[in-house]
Each structure stands twice: as structure tokens, then as C-alpha cells.
Amino acid sequence: MKCSQLLEHIEYTCLQGSTDVKVSAVVNDSRKIEEGCLFLCIKGASFDGHTFAAEAAKKGAAVLVVEDAVEVPESVTVIKVDNTRYAMALISAAWFGYPANELTTIAVTGTKGKTTTTYMVKALLEEAGHKVGVIGTIEVVIGEKHIPVNNTTPESYDIHSYFRQMAEEDCDVVVMEASSQGFKLDRTAGILFDYGLFTNLSPDHIGPNEHKDFAEYLSCKAKLFQQCKYGYANLDDEHFAEITKNATCQIETFGLNEKADLVAYDVALTRDRDFLGVDFDLKGTYEGKISCGVPGTFNVHNALGAICIAGHMGVTVEQMNKALRHFSVKGRVQIVPTGYDYTLIIDYAHNAVALESILNTLRAYDPPRLISLFGCGGNRSKLRRYEMGEVSGKLADFTIITSDNPRFEEPQAIIDDILTGMKKTDGEYISIIDRREAISYAMHHAQPGDIVVLAGKGHETYQEIEGKKYHMSEEEIVQDVLDGKY
């Protein structure tokens, strides 16, 4: 592809060389530089791509895209832009042939609920016959492929690469989690989403390498509604007005507030064997009854947001109800059927706030006993261990303290830290270092009506010990216990 084709939607200055030069690849990682490529000099938190300019030229890069001046041979085309991250997003879209234009694109943003809502949208649309790709915290889903990810919102080059693969796999829709960092670092720049959805906002991701303060965090989230054709927002969230005030698209609202366009009412928690859910009625944009197979009243808002988008795309309330009744997300308040008269849940809660949230959610179902099993990661904050111990001691009837990812620490030392918090409470507990044994203990000692939550690992299928990742799936362990292996 000619360099000029890649730059067609970018303001730039050609400092040297020609934009007629042909480009063999688009690269932003100095380790992947190849003959004839276009190399983007990206400024990161711990490195500056401009320092690799000379090396890129030596390895045969045909084009350099820069923010600052660089000294390279005249044979190399140098393109100057204001922001190389922004340029990378538009260049990547061009390189892959603008695949976003071949898909219905849906972006979900918010502090909590992005993953659950994303998979709810997927479930609803698939019930109506769509083929849906996913980009999110857990994985990228393209047809039958499930690709592990490092960032909630990948780099722009990867986003457009995934979009192209989805289009070639005959996906007609992509739903993705749009993080505040993704907006801040222009990973979604140039994409006009068909639908944007805001779940909620609370302080998070504020620190040296993320957002300087809550105001910046909020402003980054708010960018979604300047980047989509239709917007849907949670009217019940206290930051609704700030999130939507600069919107450039039409906004429809959902919530428990009677003023919302789509309202949920008569909300009721429901429980059956191997089922915890929440039922509610709809009025406003759509009307009917919904039975949602994930526990907690907070999931009403997640479901409402997903319903808004699905309804706009022609999914009936009957289809929505069918999909949501059997809905679950791997590792997110995931109910694992055991066939016994207790409820077993796997959840990713790996800090005190998340553990408190899941335990309060489950307590609302009024079980005879609420049993909490968790550990804490090694080489991480000790404060998190104290806090999680105290939260579980206060909110659970019985706690099983075990290992998570001990990394380079001794598992018993981590457990001792957790016990520091636990002993501030009157909560009953036992400590079992081996997580498999701990899960077996929980299942063998569960009584009718109990709710048991295995917290901390969620969708992870490994345990990290001394720099190595060993396979460990909690779903498989549960099945092994049921099969009598533990």
C-alpha cells in the first residue's frame, strides 16, 4: 500500500522523502521493524519510540511517522504529525481497509459492568441470529477463536486487525469494552461507533500511570458520546449529567428512575437450585417481563443497557428474556451447577471493594450460610490482604483462606497477612494453602441452602508460582470434586 493511502485522513507534514513510497507493514514495536515498513515513533510511559528512529532506518524502514525531529538518511520518508498515537489509529484503520465500516460497532464504557454488559449484548444479539465478535477484559472472541488479552482496550492497530478478522469470519457485529485509558491514548480514535453505552462511574484507575484525577477519568469516559451515532446512558448514575453534557449524539436513558426512557420496576431477587437471578418488568421504550440469570440488583442496569441496544437492532422482548434467563459470564458471578442443594459461584473479586460487593450481593438472597473462599496475590500490596480478610470476616459466615497467585512469595506468609485483617472480626475461618484442597473442603462441608463463592481467580485458568504459570481451572476442580477425585 502506498504511504499516501495510509495518510489520507491525517494532517501531516512530509519532512523528507516521498509519500508515494510503498509500505510493506505498519509497525510500532521496534522489535518488529522490517524492510519497507512504516514505523510509528510512539511516546510511552517508559519508552520513546523516537529513540529507535536511527535503528528503524538501518533495518530498512521506508517511512517514519514522528512527533519530534529525527536524524535519518534522506532515503527514508519522514512524516511529522501532532500526535503519533492518534495517527497510528487512523493509519491502522487504512492499513486494514477500514473494517469498522463492515461491522455494526458497539462500545461499552463505565467503571463497573463493562464485561457483563458486553456479553449480555452478545447473548441478546446472537439469540436473534447475529454473529458477534467481542473485544474485552477477558478475551477477544472471533468466531470460534478465543484470544487472551493484556489490555481492556487493545492498541489501535490490534483493534483494526481484530475487526478485519471478524469481518472475514462473517461477523456482522462487534461489541467492545472501551476503557478510559483507551480513550486517553487514542486507541479508538477515528472510529464512529454505531452504539455507545455508559454503565456507571466511580473513582478508579487514578494514579501516576493512569489518570491524574477523577476529573480526567470522567472526561475520558465522556469521549464515547462524542464518538458514536446513538448513545445509551444510565440515568440513575450520579455522574450522568457530566458524562452526557458534551454529547454529539442522541442520548436515550435507562434506569429505575421514572424519567428514564426505559424503566425497570418490580425488581425481585429470585433463587432456585443452581440459579440466582433477578426479575423485573419493563416500561417505556419496551414493555414486558425479564428474568435475568445473574444475581444482584446492580445487574438490572447492565441488562437494561444491553436491552436498549438489542431492541434498537430489532431483538424482541421475548428473545431478550430467553437469552438473559440462561446468561452467564465466565468468572463474573458465574454459577457452576453441582446438582446439590447449595449454590456455588466463581467470581473475579480480587480486592476488598469487589469482595465486599459480591458478598453483599449474595447476602441479599438470605442464605443460611454465606461461605467465602479467597486468597491474595503475591508481590502485591499487603494492605489489600488486610482489607480482604476484614471484609470477609465481617460479611461471610465462614471464610476459607487459601492461595491465589503466590508468585515469588511464600503462600503461608500471604495467608498470615490476610489473617491480620480477619482477626479484627468475629468471623469464623479456616486456612488451607492448597487451593484445590480448599475448594474440595468448601464443597464437602456446604450445607443445604448455603451460597459458596470462590473469589479472586474468576476467568483465569492458571496459578502463578515463582515466575511460572501452572494450569488451574476452578471449573475443572469443581468437576473433579464432583467426580470424587478430591
Structural overview:
The protein is of the alpha/beta class. It is built from 15 helices and 24 strands. It has helices spanning 3-6, 53-58, 84-95, 114-127, 156-168, 180-184, 214-222, 240-244, 298-312, 317-325, 352-363, 382-395, 411-422, 435-445, 474-482, and strands at residues 13-16, 26-27, 38-40, 63-66, 77-80, 104-109, 132-135, 139-142, 145-148, 173-177, 193-198, 228-234, 250-255, 262-272, 275-284, 288-292, 334-335, 343-347, 370-374, 398-401, 428-431, 451-455, 462-465, 468-471. The strands form four sheets. Strands 9-8-7-10-6-11-12-13-14-15-16 form an eleven-stranded mixed β-sheet, sandwiched between helices. The protein has a six-stranded mixed β-sheet with strand order 17-18-22-19-20-21, sandwiched between helices. Strands 1-5-4-3-2 form a five-stranded mixed β-sheet. Strand 19 (370-374), helix 12 (382-395) and strand 20 (398-401) form a beta-alpha-beta unit. The longest helix has 15 residues, at 298-312. The N and C termini lie far apart (58 Å).
Mean pLDDT: 95
Q: Report the radius of gyration as a whole number of Å.
A: 25 Å
**Helical percentage:** 25-40%
Total E-strand runs: 24
Q: Residue ranges: pLDDT <50 for 5 or more in a row?
A: none
Q: What does the oligomeric state look like here?
A: single chain
Q: How would you describe the shape?
A: globular
Distance between the termini: 58 Å
Q: In what order do the strands lie side by side in the largest sheet?
A: 9-8-7-10-6-11-12-13-14-15-16
- SS class: alpha/beta
Total helices: the number is 15
**Which strand-content bin applies to the residues?**
15-25%
How would a textbook summarize the main sheet?
A: 11 strands, mixed
